[in-house]
Amino acid sequence: MKIGILAIQGDFEAHARVLEKLGVEYVYVRTPEDLQGVDGLILPGGESTTHMKMLAETGLDDAIRKMAANGGAFFGTCAGAIVLAREVKGPPQASLGLMDITVVRNAYGRQLASDVFLLPTKLSEAPLEMVFIRAPVIEAIDKNVEVLAERNGKPVLVQQGRMIAATFHPELTDDTKIHERFVKLVEKTAMSEASSQSRVASRK
Amino acid sequence: MKSGEQKNGHENLWRVKVGLAEMLKGGVIMDVTTAEQAKIAEDAGACAVMALERVPSDIRKDGGVARMASPRIIREIMATVTIPVMAKVRIGHFAEAQVLEALEVDYIDESEVLTPADEENHVWKHAFKAPFVCGARNLGEALRRIGEGAAMIRTKGEAGSGNIVEAVRHMRTIVGQMKKLTTLGEEELMHQAKELGAPLDLVQQVAKTGKLPTPNFSAGGIATPADAALMMQLGAEAVFVGSGIFKSSDPAKRAKAIVYATTNYQDAKKVLEASDELGEAMKGLDVRQMDEKDLMQTRGW
Fold it and tell me: Which residue in B47, B86, B264 has the most chain A C-beta atoms within 10 A of its own C-beta, making it the best mutation to test that interface?
């Protein structure tokens, strides 16, 4: 199993620290070649406009879409959730369109509206600490998207198959629950790939 | 604390202040003076812009008192781009800072580029909900500003000079002083706090981690993609580019190239790619030929 962290700009090192704590290996991804053998990709917080421009410039956008088509797993936080979304508003901007969610940028306001909340999730009995920084809002989701947590009646943590999106920053807290959930998804992805490869091999 | 309750404490405010700085890491923050320039910066991939009335090299040329930009300019820039917008206040001018907070700018730069308002006291930044960035030339200065509540530190360099030498000196000094602290015993840290003129608890924290308690960016003299790559390799976690972009012959191209070089600072081939066919860089100044009174870096302490 190999996890990549998109390292164009933003808090990719914070994600790396969580994976180190969990004892999971990772590589930083800056070019399409870096995606070689990656089963799961983390899209960190940062500026989504910067991320999308660099993804398009380097050809990483197509490489990531190809990885998704091949069953790869994805985890986007804040800007990462925007990059994964099918539709972005406030204002409209390009995105990878992998998850069936509509996201509105900076929907709570500017930096002065950034805050920390303790909110319930479907992941455990205890509430989870959530750090929102110039956060987007998930305005609409398709039926195939599961809501794992909400703030003011709007989803803030969602999952669609092998993809998880959070509008807050789990990487900036000590709670590793969501990262653990993602690592399990990636393990499953890697195992199913390995078994399909061995089936091909045994057929030969 | 009940579930769903908003966490309001000072500690959480500090976390979202430093948190926004975390989000800017690996990026380029560009000085802009008009909405049009802000758009060029955003389109080039800037992770934030600094709204100003004049870029530092023009402030230098024009002379007179340099103050906070007019709210109209800042508001126009805020309305034009979706990335964070920063603005500068004079050192110690907490009323200008109150105005910028009321304007809801995303980051306030208490900056030596403007004419200082108080030669003894910097702004008490803990009193604000808006986060602050401050310049520093050495570790003591950085920790004093953090002690006052700065959530991001940048090297001062020599703003508007187009000359990287001072930013290099300041970054090497800060990194070197931090390295030294990690080698000392706990009984030696009070003396270090005295020497650095810095709060003991912050000195102890740096001795333990080898890093500042906030992100550590670079500013003051960056004019080329290679300048950005140099500062990133020396330990900067992001770069501010002031006059370097809009005082060059092709700002849009140079802006994009500096963003590309900052992301790929460890890959010389990519920095080469970014450096090709850029046109003229800003002319720049030899800091050694400058009068002491013309230096901006010596403002503040």
Answer: B47
Q: What is the CATH number of domain A3-203?
A: 3.40.50.880
Dihedral angle, C-alpha A70, A74, A80, A85, nearest 10 °: 60
Query: Quick check: is B179 catalytic?
Result: no
Size of interface A-B (CB pairs under 8 A): 132
pLDDT at position A196 over 70:
no
Among B25, B17, B284, B263, CA closest to B157 = B284
Please indicate whether, in this complex, the C-beta atoms of B263 and A9 are within 8 angstroms of each other: yes
Question: Measured between alpha carbons, how far is B112 from A160 in angstroms, rounded to an integer?
Answer: 49
DSSP H or E segment with residue A158: strand A154-160
Domain ranges of chain A: 3-203
**What is d(CA B224, CA A9) in angstroms, rounded to the nearest whole number?**
19
**Mean pLDDT value across residues B239-260:** 94
Answer positive or negative: Cα dihedral of A187, B19, B46, B102: positive
Cα A132 from chain centroid (whole Å)? 15
**Which residues of chain A lie closer than 8 angstroms to B16, CB-CB?**
111, 114-116, 131-133
**Among the listed residues A96, A126, A131, A152, the one whose alpha carbon sits nearest the alpha carbon of residue B21:** A131
Question: At residue B5, does pLDDT exceed 60?
Answer: no
Name which of A6, A12, A33, A47 to mutate to probe chain B: the one with the most chain B Cβ atoms within 10 A of its Cβ.
A47
Question: pLDDT tens, A160-173?
Answer: 999 999 999 999 99
